[in-house]
Amino acid sequence: MRVDFAPLYRSTVGFDRLFNLIDSLGAEQGQPTYPPYNIERTGENDYRISMAVAGFGESDLTIEAKENGLTVKGDKKDDASGKELLYRGIASRAFERRFQLADYVVVKGASLENGLLHIDLVREIPEAMKARQIPIAGGAAKVRQIEAQAA
């Protein structure tokens, strides 16, 4: 199913990334499901991605944050210890998983424990973008200001 966003492009400014993201949702249906992962909210502005990467060590994993994207790659080096594997139940194939991050979401850190890769994210909204109270200068304030200047 494709939606034509052309009418919206004519009357909006700066939403092209959002429209492209919505448009690409249909294309992601065939996206691989390995490795499995969870995305959880751990606080008001804190998030965590947990990926099951059993068999991968820190040297086999690469995490890259670029613009509004996060890419996690895993490439297991072949174990040349001469083992004869009779059954492979633990997948160790290479993978690449991409995540689209919202504006002002940055990677805070990553850790690998018990076969799970945890990537901590935080939304850091700049001070200039946060809501602020604007004082209202009424007529009484102007009268006091004029009286102070006259004295």
TrEMBL record:
Top-rank taxon: Bacteria
InterPro entries named in the record: A-crystallin/Hsp20_dom, ACD_IbpA/B, HSP20-like_chaperone
Zinc-finger as UniProt keyword: no
UniProt key word Nucleotidyltransferase: no
Domain SHSP: 28-139
Keywords carried by this UniProt record: Stress response
Family label: Belongs to the small heat shock protein (HSP20) family.
PANTHER family referenced in this protein's UniProt entry, alphabetically: PTHR47062, SMALL HEAT SHOCK PROTEIN IBPA
Protein known as: SHSP domain-containing protein
Annotated source species: Prosthecodimorpha hirschii
